[in-house]
Amino acid sequence: MSIDIDTARKVAHLARIRVPEEHLPELAQELSNILTFMEQLNEVDVEGVEPMTSVTPMRLKRRVDEVTDGGYQDKILKNAPDAREGFFAVPKVVE
């Protein structure tokens, strides 16, 4: 599949990327190369191949799932503009 300059311009616009006019042919060629590579990947037979989550089969270490209060209340409330009785204090919005 080949991308023309107008399509490259439209892709750049949709991606909110400012591309000077003189660089549009290069962008079109790069996008065409990417699509060609994707077409090559589609030709690979992956029937019966399990998806991989890692290159090496290993289980991640897991921590014990314990419910805690975090222990950071003082550090977090130190950044608050107004804190009272261990909570963030905010202006009243409903009368």
TrEMBL record:
Allows the formation of correctly charged Asn-tRNA(Asn) or Gln-tRNA(Gln) through the transamidation of misacylated Asp-tRNA(Asn) or Glu-tRNA(Gln) in organisms which lack either or both of asparaginyl-tRNA or glutaminyl-tRNA synthetases. The reaction takes place in the presence of glutamine and ATP through an activated phospho-Asp-tRNA(Asn) or phospho-Glu-tRNA(Gln). GO terms for biological process: glutaminyl-tRNAGln biosynthesis via transamidation; regulation of translational fidelity; translation. Keywords: ATP-binding, Ligase, Nucleotide-binding, Protein biosynthesis, Transferase. The keyword ATP-binding applies. Its EC number is 6.3.5.-. The gene is gatC. SUPFAM superfamilies: Glu-tRNAGln amidotransferase C subunit (SSF141000). It holds the Pfam family GatC. Heterotrimer of A, B and C subunits. Belongs to the GatC family. The keyword Protein biosynthesis applies. HAMAP family: GatC. This is Aspartyl/glutamyl-tRNA(Asn/Gln) amidotransferase subunit C. One of its GO terms (molecular function) is asparaginyl-tRNA synthase (glutamine-hydrolyzing) activity. It catalyses: L-aspartyl-tRNA(Asn) + L-glutamine + ATP + H2O = L-asparaginyl-tRNA(Asn) + L-glutamate + ADP + phosphate + 2 H(+); L-glutamyl-tRNA(Gln) + L-glutamine + ATP + H2O = L-glutaminyl-tRNA(Gln) + L-glutamate + ADP + phosphate + H(+).
